[in-house]
Design goal:
By secondary structure, the protein is mainly β. It is built from no helices and ten strands.
C-alpha cells in the first residue's frame, strides 16, 4: 500500500471538502466536525464527481406539518441529483444500498495522507469498520 501526502489538515476546514488527483484516482477529503473522511470522487447513483457537491444538513423526523433540519454538516449532497449521503455510514439516506466508496486517510503531524493500493487506486471497503475515517498518529 502506498501512502500519498495530500495537504495540511488546516486546508480542509470543518464542513468543507477538497479534491485531489492522485495517480489514477480522484480523492475527496471531507472534514466532518474535525474528523476527516476519505472518499473516491464518484457518486454510486450515476457517477457524478461527488467532490463538487456540498456538505449540508438535512430534514430529520419531526412532528406532522413541521420541518426540522438536523445532522448539521454531516450529509454530503451529490451535485447532479441531490442524493444525500450520511458521512458516518457513507450510505445514501433515501436508499442505503447505495454507498460512497471510502479511501483511508491518515493525519500525521498536521498533514493528511491517503492510503492507496500499489496500482495507485483507492483502497475501498476492504475494512468496512474503518469507512475511510482518518487514523490519527502523532500531532
Amino acid at each position: 500500500m502506498a501512502e500519498v501526502a495530500l495537504c495540511l489538515a488546516d486546508d480542509v476546514p470543518p464542513a468543507e471538502m477538497r479534491v485531489f488527483d492522485v495517480g489514477n484516482v480522484s480523492v475527496v477529503v471531507v472534514n466532518v466536525g474535525g474528523q476527516f473522511v476519505g472518499l473516491r470522487n464518484w457518486c454510486p447513483h450515476h457517477g457524478a464527481p461527488i467532490g463538487r457537491g456540498r456538505v449540508e444538513r438535512t430534514l430529520v423526523p419531526s412532528a406532522p406539518h413541521d420541518l426540522e433540519l438536523g445532522r448539521d454538516f454531516q450529509v454530503l449532497v451529490c451535485p447532479w441529483h441531490r442524493w444525500e449521503f450520511n458521512m458516518t455510514t457513507l450510505q445514501c439516506l433515501a436508499d442505503p444500498r447505495f454507498t460512497l466508496r471510502s479511501i483511508p486517510v491518515r493525519l500525521y503531524e498536521g498533514r493528511l495522507y491517503a492510503q492507496l493500493v500499489e496500482d495507485g487506486t483507492g483502497r475501498s471497503d476492504d475494512d468496512p469498520g474503518r469507512r475511510g475515517h482518518v487514523e490519527q498518529t502523532g500531532h
